[in-house]
## 1
Amino acid sequence: MRYRVVAVGRIRDAGLRAACDDYLDRLKRYTRIEEREAKDEARILEAVPEESRLVVLSERGEEWSSAQLAEWTGRWEMDGRDVAFAIGGADGLPEPVTRRAERTWSLSRLTFPHELARLLVYEQLYRAYTIRRGEPYHRGS
């Protein structure tokens, strides 16, 4: 099982890029994960293998706690199917992408720049794995 984070555009800010790379390196201790960048929203699906479970990020999605995401990662691993997370740009994701999604996840009702949303996804996936392993990173209830 592999995670793919498919996002529109590149992260131009060096600090955000370094933070994303740090969480990607941490995650690789627990699972296989890769990042793919799409030139625009219309090309998101080109970067998502057809057999993958697609989770799109949208402010209209379900809000999950970190513990709930940890549960989802456990279920997805048991299923063995790859999971792709799609992060749109300023205009969000086009309807064909959202229609293909099996789940829609909202990081918050706030709107984040797509670069920051990518960092939040990496951090939350890392947190989910530390929760599942009982490691001290997560101090929430």
## 2
Amino acid sequence: MSNLTGWLGLAYPWVKAAHVTFVIFWLAGLFLLPRLYAYHQEAPAGSPDDRVWIEREARVRSIILTPAIIVVWILGLMLATNLDIWDQHWFQAKLAFVIGLSAYQGWLGAYGKKLAKGERPLSNKAVRMLNEVPGVAAAIIVVLVIVRPF
């Protein structure tokens, strides 16, 4: 079993399982936060509902998204280093999508700050479309990892 070589040794499947688990947590947060933003956009700025949405969104960012992205990155880098796959094109493409999802999370955080200030720069439809970003990226990443098309 070549997957049990490298510096992770017998810990490899456990690290991989933990990585996949935290990817699920991360994606759950990336699906949830734009949905909360869609509802938040409809609340009048400064209203009691507005304050409730701000608090809910902050909890998703601090309790789900931030810890999940940190663990995903740490475990993912451990796996990539253990398998020495840095020069494989499927992995490079996957890494690009993960960097993109990380940037998307950063953008979501910035958008949440705008909502908290009472700004509504995007339409409700545009905010609802944000839910599609992590799903499309996840589907592409899964194909890259499982099929390894190149």
## 3
Amino acid sequence: MAELTYRQAVAAALAQEMARDDRVVLLGEDVASGGVFKTTAGLRERFGPDRVWNTPISEQAIAGAAMGAAMAGLRPVAEIMFADFYATCWDQVANEIAKVRYMTGGQVTMPLVLRGANGSGGLGFGSQHGQSVENWAMCVPGLKIVSPAGPAEAFGLLAAAIRDDDPVLVFEHKALYGRREEVPDGEHVLPLGRARTVRTGGDVTLVGLSITVGTCLAAADELANHGFAADVLDLRTLVPLDAAAVLASVRRTGRLVVVEENPGQLGWGAAIAAIAAEEAFSDVPLPVAASLEAEVDVSAARVVAAARALLKHG
């Protein structure tokens, strides 16, 4: 085991895959000098200018060049420095990169990775450089989505993304770059689409992604002080989504809390909650006892109670 920071783990994964496959190339703003977040430090010196390319300050150019390189047989890893700026190259990402393999009937693959610093984390980057935007990509068929919670995940998931024959968006949380933990020695690759159980408990399921996994663990510690044991899941990837792991936990605990650093409407948390509501809980036959029947059946009294609860807190 080696102790690495999150940013060092990203650089180590890139180095591992570049050494393994000479088709892997890096491109983006300032990547040749290590990048603004120092996630590509030392790679230009090790692999040379033919495989580590600085680009103009143009996300459209970066995404377009990566797409062309992938179609030509390379396996590019392109850095969109701040994930917020997917907004400036969204046509290439959503309408071209995500659809080429499907529209060519599999004749043209798109083995590329787009990386970007994502999220807020209390760093004060503001409304144009501090958003969590993984939800933008979740609803685009053809894209895989990765968001690591720590150095070991950052290393293993990025390596898997580079080896994948489909386009993968990797959202690295900027507030995690300095986090340090042990990473396995040797080749380290984690499967996409498999959630990680970080902590086990039988009272409630806490589901997090990226930085919110740590939030869930802190909450689980506090809940333990009150006598409750939380199951904590790290989704790791949104596409593919390990819904089976979430459902297995919720069926065991009977309770679910989803923790995301995103606007609440149409977020990945809403998708997780909907899946759990639909599949983890069962309807019951209509009871015979009048008191139980009243709990199940629709009545004006229940509607009034629900409305009063809303009015009370409105």
